[in-house]
């Protein structure tokens, strides 16, 4: 072939397989989301729609045909999401860069495609698109994977506690950001809760579970719920957001949003073989209880 | 800190730096674009809008602040794009997975965001989003990088020649796909050109350069063109497509497309320091001429 | 410093850590031992002294201060040896090339140093030294490590069975090598045993366990045996070989070899803290029995 | 095959190829040589025999059939040696661990085998064998490789200057080690030379080149010298040491040492195809002169 004199360059493509039989996590992170969230006026300390959009994009990743159902669960908080794969996953020969770029690309595509449903009045700008980077991390056993998820949930808790008090001090308490920062400096968790309660009448433990615990995308046995097409394993584009957390029954409730969706639904042709659907839940992953429960038990085995 | 007992899991994040001082190429590839292009009725053998959309997404990658101007050129054909980085690039500590995921994410985001401008009547479906995977390849010197680009351009040439004759036989010549395949089996380049010319009056060398040579995104010295904001180094969203190749003056000509753009332009605040802009050209990279020309000389040094 | 303008070259030394918490095996292999064993007239199909020398070199690796006692066991056959490390091993930051080169170097040094004791009449030649290469393989759990060792022992069995019959046919049966090869072609294990028994009166299962099962170097609780200094955790150079298998009581029996040893013994100064010593045994690793026995249980945890 | 149920464990052996077309250096380092050199009473600040033994072991590596002549040069100082391979080297598929372990093993074997010729009165002890670890470093062009070697030679210079003055102060000047260290603290090169000259009448620049510049093992065109068999490309074991530097004509001069050598010479059968031999020289690699000279020009191309 005419091109054969150049094909030697293909020899520079080195293999990068993961170790066989490790569990692996692909974690994606929003790049420059501080500025991005400002540009689109995300609510502080948490934006319900922004987080729900993250969850819907994650469901698209987990449930999409690209991953062949081999991602067993995903955990998200703020602008990051962790996708956990079972140890027997053989997708794409377990090539590291192939796997991590696929996850990042599907997530990004879904996030951008779903954006207008969640932020109909704040269109994306080409020069400031939502962008995510990713990495793969391998673990050798279930205990390590559980500790990984606990690590992320402890992070959720610490950040949310701080941000909740910080923004209460600023938005309701009239402090400047600098004053708020100084007031919180050196405080421990219980002191922050006390500030929230005594000064603003807020009981931290009554706040939205999604804010305090992050979001878990998991598979659930059983047929897709009648009125919740968004939770089937072939994701549709029916937005599962709601105008406000107050009116939201669940992250999976059908939307009443009438914004004209640029993303069109496609009718499902063939029924899924194993009946299962994706749900978003907000559970305590730090104690052992959930891991021993019906949903948590065996979840990492897929 | 409460979470410290779990932070050991962070130790499983292994370093993955590229070698210092290599040139490196990040190549992205459309995943399942055979089906995707069918679903959206891409023209055969080439779809002008689809290729222009690829080019615009690539410009967004090369010119975007995420890469800090360290990508010196990009080459695209069909549903793939190769981004070439100068050897002195120190972006993100040259961490492999960070770099490859960033490029894939920016490209995907731009592709999805720009889609409605190029395919206003064929909205994306959530279950079949355009998705790209990526890989990084390192080279030790300029000669190898040039040969890499030649390898891709030879591939462009071979594929386009085949596809052009194949689709002429099918669409204009009334063959079935199987008949066309058999007719082309074993033919060499000159025979394919002869079929094109004798049976369909098509001179292959007069076909669109973009189809025959692929597209090159490069930096050009000088101030951004007045009427071509899309070629500045801070990309805007003014679509540079045209309804048909016949009317297209250049891939950078301002669009007359009046589709309501979901992606909003942002006014540029601060002027770019070094005056340079991105252009899309279609050059012969296989002979040495372009590499010795004004544009090609030193291009890999950034 | 004067040299600082060149220190940038140090930046090309890339990290190569193993994953934390994997079990890992370092397997070394004799390079060109076919020729080497010929040059020194190794007995066929097995050379007692050559195998014992391998075992003694392996004991030096496992028991030496270089590995800090973190190698939990080793398995050898023919000219290869596998060293198994516990998952908690943190030696040298688990740097792959550091670990594999250390093991190879200690093994090679011990093999060469001990050589004159085992082959006093066949001195080494500089141009044909015994040389070993090595590799590191990581496993995620004990079941995989056990299967790794079973894989090597099945290999021992298959090779030894074949070689035993082959050399009986050649050395006692008067066949040429080609005839012997043809005679064995396509035979299964039971047929080979039958040939051995009917033609040569040899019961395969009565052959030396070291030949049939390979050698296992493991730690044993308790004080070093009085008359077996070679099995202490600080290896001495007292050769544990014997002139022939017939007279050998154990691979650890003190040598009666009076060859002037070029390697001098050093008196042990400080007593080992945890009383344990290295022993060489020949066990069936394929069934579960040994793994459940006193010696095998917990052996991989170190 | 009976063993097939275990062969899955082979899948855990991951590929580790070097990038094609890089130059690469394998550097080995003595492990714990501070203690080792004390145990064998190496002369301070430099031991002629110990360094010559390093050089001979390096020649065995470079000239041995294991590396197929693809190592183009080697540089040694103290207890370390760097082996430089040409970019076109395809040995063992450029597998990193294979290459680095081979070099370490050949070096170690040669060092131990040659030891009795250089230290006939100080036999090795099994529990304190000379051991080397190794690493591979890749470079993209000749300039970087030259700078690598300069980096090592600057290191040689700095260490030797310090050690020479330090040991003069201690051995001839009657200082304690602590006093000598304090006296040298903060001094620059010229001050150290001044101390040497004014207090001990030593002109630093007249000291042995091997001590000041390290040793370079390179190939030289032409037939092997009659009386210097050690410099042929098939290394023999004739020791090239000498009792003292004063009487040494060259590192390659035939030894007059009559110690019964445990390593036997083998007669060379077939003549080497390309006539070339290995020599040890002590050159200034920091300035450009040598690199532009007959020996240095093109040396890295092999």
From TrEMBL, chains A, B, C, D:
Matching InterPro entries: Thg1_C_dom, tRNAHis_GuaTrfase_cat, tRNAHis_GuaTrfase_Thg1, tRNAHis_GuaTrfase_Thg1_sf
Reaction equation(s) it catalyzes: a 5'-end ribonucleotide-tRNA(His) + GTP + ATP + H2O = a 5'-end phospho-guanosine-ribonucleotide-tRNA(His) + AMP + 2 diphosphate + H(+)
Superkingdom of origin organism: Eukaryota
Comp. bias regions, Basic residues: 265-278
Positions annotated to bind GTP: 78-79
Feature: compositional bias, Low complexity: 231-264
Annotated GO MF terms: GTP binding; magnesium ion binding; tRNA guanylyltransferase activity
Keyword Transmembrane helix: yes
Record-given protein name: tRNA(His) guanylyltransferase
Cofactor(s) needed: Mg(2+)
Family: Belongs to the tRNA(His) guanylyltransferase family.
Enzyme Commission number(s): 2.7.7.79
Chain ranges passing through the membrane: 99-118
Domain Thg1 C-terminal intervals: 144-286
Domain tRNAHis guanylyltransferase catalytic per the UniProt entry, residue ranges: 6-139
Comment on bound cofactor: Binds 2 magnesium ions per subunit.
Binding, Mg(2+) 2: 29, 79
Disordered, as annotated region: 222-278
Record: residues binding Mg(2+) 1: 29-30, 79
One GO BP: tRNA modification
Keywords, sorted A to Z: GTP-binding, Magnesium, Membrane, Metal-binding, Nucleotide-binding, Nucleotidyltransferase, Transferase, Transmembrane, Transmembrane helix, tRNA processing
Organism: Rhodotorula toruloides (strain NP11) (Yeast)
Chain's role: Adds a GMP to the 5'-end of tRNA(His) after transcription and RNase P cleavage.
Top-tier EC class: transferase
